[in-house]
Specification:
Elements: E1 10-13, E2 23-32, H1 36-44, H2 46-49, E3 54-57, E4 64-69, E5 77-86, E6 90-95, E7 98-107, E8 110-121, H3 125-144
Antiparallel strand pairs: 1-2, 2-8, 3-4, 4-5, 5-6, 6-7, 7-8
């Protein structure tokens, strides 16, 4: 195993939680030399999403889909509620109680993806943080044609989130 070269997420305090709350937001940012439509397709189209995160089934126009994880790290199936979808710029979902927000912005030939996992208990960031790094690195590898990372290299990054 080796520690992957990756961009760490930031742990930010929750501004809409009660004072003294133990909840935080995990924030990640990635940039890709690709049009916004290509990145949007990678995070919303079931066949492409399945290659780095999971495959959804169902009718997204109903506001709900089922997501089955498709990698070496996880194979669980969860319910996903689509809270907001304004393609190709914004997607907010509730995945089994996890509020996940995705924002895309294109400047010139570069699309920047901002990803937030809100309302994370502070005690869980060392476990959850490396997981999102792993999935976002898988997305990046898919989009730019690099070798896919392996989950076994990520858990040791948990200390970076404490």
């Amino acid at each position: 195993m080796s520690t992957p070269t990756t961009v760490l997420g930031e742990v930010r305090p929750e501004h809409d939680s009660p004072s003294g709350s133990i909840l935080v937001t995990l924030h990640y940012q990635r940039s890709f030399p690709l049009p916004i439509g290509t990145v949007w397709a990678a995070v919303t189209e079931p066949d492409v999403l399945a290659r780095w995160y999971g495959r959804w089934t169902g009718d997204p126009s109903s506001g709900r889909v089922r997501l089955t994880m498709t990698d070496e790290h996880d194979s669980a199936t969860t319910d996903v509620t689509i809270v907001e979808c304004t393609g190709p710029r914004s997607l907010v979902v509730d995945q089994d109680g996890w509020r996940l927000e995705l924002q895309l912005r294109q400047v010139g030939r570069v699309t920047t993806l901002g990803f937030l996992h809100r309302h994370v208990p502070r005690s869980e960031v060392a476990e959850i943080g490396p997981g999102w790094q792993y999935y976002l690195d898988r997305l990046g590898a898919l989009l730019v044609g690099q070798r896919e990372p392996h989950w076994a290299d990520y858990p040791e990054l948990g200390e970076s989130y404490r």
